[in-house]
Amino acid sequence: MAAQCTATKRNKERCTLPANGPHGLCWAHDPANAEKRRRVASRGGRGKANREVAALKDELKSVITDVRAGDLDRNDAAVMIQGYRALKDLIALERQVKETDELAAEIEELKREYGVA
Ligand SMILES: [Zn+2]
Q: What are the tens digits of pLDDT across the range 22-75?
């Protein structure tokens, strides 16, 4: 039976995870894993997806502005907006796939760390 982690959680409660490091700490509280945890947390290209969404928003705004100003044919604008909608769906799908893959990888990593793989 593994010893309990001696760290205290943010809510001041004692961590309930089993200690598996040399310091009486669980994987999540072992400072040796802090860098690894940060990498896991920041992984995922969310920045890229957000930039794509921001670019899409800008393009859509300019289409709307052009239609209002009479610089763009309404039918052309409607087709363009359909295209943007398809792009939006693809970005959302891409994000879902990426998040699912990342979660699966993180679960595998945790299973390995806790020796239940
Ligand atoms: Zn802990």
A: 788 888 888 877 777 777 666 555 677 788 889 999 999 999 999 999 999 999
Residue ranges near ligand 1 (ion) with Cβ within 5 Å: 5, 7, 15, 17, 26, 29
C-alpha–C-alpha distance, residues 19 and 65, integer Å:
59
Residue type, 15: C
Say how many Å lie between the CA of residue 100 and the centre of ligand 1. Answer: 25
- Collapsing DSSP states into helix, strand and coil, what is residue 15? coil
Cβ count near 93 (within 10 Å): 10
Query: Are the C-beta atoms of residues 36 and 113 closer than 8 Å to each other?
Result: no
- Assess contact for 3 and 18: CB atoms under 8 A: yes
